[in-house]
Write a structure and sequence with these properties.
CATH class of the largest domain: Mainly Alpha
Radius of gyration: 22 Å
Largest sheet: 5 strands, antiparallel
Number of domains: 2
Strand content: 15-25%
Distance between the termini: 24 Å
Helix content: 40-55%
Shape: globular
CATH architecture of the largest domain: Up-down Bundle
Number of strands: 9
Order of helices and strands: HEEEEEEEEHHEHHHHH
Structural class: alpha+beta
CATH topology of the largest domain: Ferritin
Length: 333
């Protein structure tokens, strides 16, 4: 039986090591340049993996000197060939962080309560009631907006606990993704009756950080490995069911990016288990033994305009095909 792609990515994140390989990366240079900079002078951000980039590839080291080459380019969409690019190509070490790069949100908790910013909004027609679909999309935008704060706090926690830069980079990218998700949700809300909708002041009082690896890992299990993974898996299924192409596209984008955030949570827990001690393992096990989060299938069904029964069925499948085997793998760590 074929495994769910999200589960495959989670299991890869829990393997304890990222795929790494020796490759080649090139950067464009002027046609008149006949020599290449020495490797110590090369900015890795200017290099592109050749011949193709796999999702999740990161160049971590330039391992040798460069060679002047003319690198072939892919043809245009109509098949017209393109001129080769004058380039300098270098041997490099590449780390592949996410084996399948699969395809909703991470809540912000304060003293056990989920926080959301109130909305500033107005309807397109004064005095006319807003549809429940519009309201659901506006609320979804507020939840995505709150996820920005959740990832921002997570970045600070990881920094104080000495996490590697690859995790910090991924967490900041996730926060940026959540800004985009909020914009997408509010755009659909406006299409359904709002003239304006955006977040007001976020009700942040005091930022309390996880004080040790065990607390960080337990929170990552609850908020990411369980809640975010379930939401991403269900959103992936519901995106394919939505009859409105625009809604389907929005849900598809959110599902794909939330799935990468879910995998990130497993990567964070795997790191904490590797560098922590018995207390981290005990905290992870305890978090998995707590009641698992439930998804608001009624609201997602309303937003996608599909039956709640179909969304509930997708949630059941996600529990069996993704969440349970992923949790079992964590328990075995």
């Amino acid at each position: 039986m074929n495994r769910n792609p999200l589960l495959v990515a989670i299991l890869a994140a829990l393997s304890g090591c990222d795929d790494s390989y020796d490759g080649r990366a090139c950067m464009e240079v002027p046609a008149t340049q006949t020599t290449c900079p020495i490797r110590a002078e090369v900015d890795k951000s200017h290099l592109n993996v050749a011949p193709t980039v796999k999702c999740g590839d990161e160049i971590v080291e330039v391992t040798g000197d460069g060679k002047r080459e003319n690198v072939s380019q892919s043809p245009l969409q109509d098949g017209t060939p393109r001129e080769p690019l004058p380039s300098c190509c270098y041997p490099v070490k590449i780390v592949h962080h996410d084996a399948s790069c699969p395809t909703p949100g991470r809540p912000y908790f304060d003293a056990g309560q989920m926080l959301f910013a109130p909305l500033r909004s107005s309807s397109q027609t004064a005095g006319a009631p807003l549809s429940q679909v519009a309201i659901a999309w506006a609320r979804a935008g507020a939840a995505e907006h709150a996820s920005v704060a959740a990832f921002s706090r997570l970045a600070l926690e990881l920094m104080t606990l000495g996490a590697p830069n690859e995790l910090l980079r991924a967490v900041h990218q996730a926060a940026l993704d959540e800004v985009g998700h909020a914009d997408l949700c509010w755009a659909v809300a406006k299409r359904n009756g709002y003239s304006e909708v955006c977040a007001a002041e976020f009700p942040l009082r005091e930022v309390k950080l996880a004080h040790d690896l065990a607390a960080l890992a337990a929170a990552a299990v609850r908020e990411g490995c369980l809640a975010e993974t379930l939401g991403a898996a269900v959103a992936t299924s519901v995106a394919a069911l939505a009859p409105d192409p625009e809604v389907s596209a929005v849900l598809g984008v959110i599902a794909r990016e939330e799935a990468t955030h879910a995998v990130l949570s497993f990567r964070i827990v795997a790191w904490a288990l590797r560098v922590g001690g018995a207390d981290v393992k005990a905290a992870v096990r305890a978090a998995l033994q707590e009641p698992w989060p439930a998804l608001d299938t009624e609201e997602l069904a309303l937003r996608a305009e599909v039956s709640s029964a179909r969304v509930a069925d997708a949630a059941t499948r996600a529990l069996v095909e993704v969440l349970t085997p992923a949790a079992n793998r964590l328990l075995a760590a």
